[in-house]
Every structure is written in C-alpha cells, then in structure tokens.
Write a structure and sequence with these properties.
GO terms for molecular function: metal ion binding. The chain is α+β, with helices and mostly antiparallel strands. It has one domain: Alpha-Beta Plaits (2-Layer Sandwich). Helix content is 37%, strand content 19%.
Length: 111
Amino acid sequence: MIAGMLAFAGPALWAGDKIKTVAIKTTINCDHCKMCPSCGARLEKSLYDQKGIKRVDVDDQHKTIKVVYHSEKITLETIKNTIAASGYDADEVKAPAEALAKLDACCRGAE
C-alpha cells in the first residue's frame, strides 16, 4: 500500500524543484482588472493556455502578476511575452500598442 502511494505521489514530489514562483511587475490602470470579464479573463486565459502554468494571481493594488509555473515546460521569457501580448507590461517587456488597444478603456488608462 505504501509503495502504491509513493508511486502516485512520487512524480509530484520530484517536480518540486522545477516549480517556480515569480512576481512580475506590470501596469494596471484600474482597480478591477483582475475581475474584469474581458481584460482580466483574457490575461488569465492566455497564461493558463500555456503548458506549465500552475497558478496566476493578479494583484492590482501592488501592480504585480504572480505566476507559479513548471520551469521545464515554460520559460520566464515566454510568460512575460504572453502577458505583454495580453496588453499588460511584464517587467521590462512592454505591451505592444495593438494589444493595449484591445483592453477596455479603463484598463488602458483612458478613463
């Protein structure tokens, strides 16, 4: 029985050192981006669509996006590029104008 439990739990335990957490500085122009049904949902979906993303937490108060990911399945660079492609800056990676244009006016800072 113990061998069966170890066989089931083993791969999760072995992946532990490959699971990373990063807090990425971003530009959030409103107080509800993470709850926004269009902008926040688009950001989370774009990240969760990437293989290796385990968890995404948007903190609009501290202007960070915390991402838990499997480092052998996705790189930090890919995560930042995915965030930028969703219309949000990601540390040094700036969101392109065409991605910003897809955000709601309040999320762009236009209101």
